[in-house]
Specification:
The protein has a domain of about 200 residues: 3-Layer(aba) Sandwich (Rossmann fold). The protein is an alpha/beta fold. The two termini are about 25 Å apart. Helices cover about 40% and strands about 25% of the residues. It has eleven helices and eight strands. The longest helix has 17 residues. The protein is globular.
Length: about 280
Amino acid sequence: MQNAAQIEFWNGDTGKNWVTHDALMEAMLAPLGERVLDSLAISAGTHALDIGCGCGHPTLSLARRIGASGSVTGVDISAPMLNLAQGLAEQAPEDSAPVSFIKADAQTYRFSETPFDVVFSRFGVMFFDEPVAAFSNIRGAMRPGGQLAFCCWQPRAVNPFMTIPALAAMELLPPPPEMPARAPGPFAFEEAEYVEQILFEADFSDITINPVSQPLVFGKGLSIEEIVDRLVQIGPIAQMVREAPEPLRQPVMDKVKIAVSPYYTEASGMILEGNFWQVSAAA
């Protein structure tokens, strides 16, 4: 099965934890998705596709922007996240475009014959086993000249949201296994040249990749202890702490609290800089 490891991953504890903390994660990531959505040429009647739609918030934002005469399809491999997305869609305003969700792998799924005018993704396209095949399949579902736009992470090293908690945890825990470069995962697209190569080989044109810096606001309204608790459930150190011996878990959390405290205020939560690529191309 293509992308089997990712399918198992996002239907297991990670997908369930994301649903549990959906509001927290959405508050952090929504500004980035909205920035990408602002770049799209959306009008009445637009048919749009959201790749890796997760819990469906960007999908529903697309639907509101398009209005009742278009349509939006969200595709994801995570059943727990899609269940939440479907529930949110049932509460959408009547003047939004109709929304449908598909549990499928966008690398191989045969989309309907109605071509998409717009394809969007917020951090949903870095997980394919064969990214050229995936983007070729996606391009084949688009009308000629249709617009692709997505955001993805720049390298881990320039994203302190990922590095600061992890370095603190590694004072007591062994580092996680080193991932091969370009392996499916959050940082598979950290190299802009690699992303450009994939899209070129998938027959996209007018490829543009711009760096974006955006503060990541995590846990506004929570105490520092609550923020650290969330970081070990859904954040970049979740798996490390989950696999740690029980006697080490609280000491690790204490280390993380010390490390992130300089970036925390009671009014704003934890704020750490994020660095991303904003990508666009034409089918």
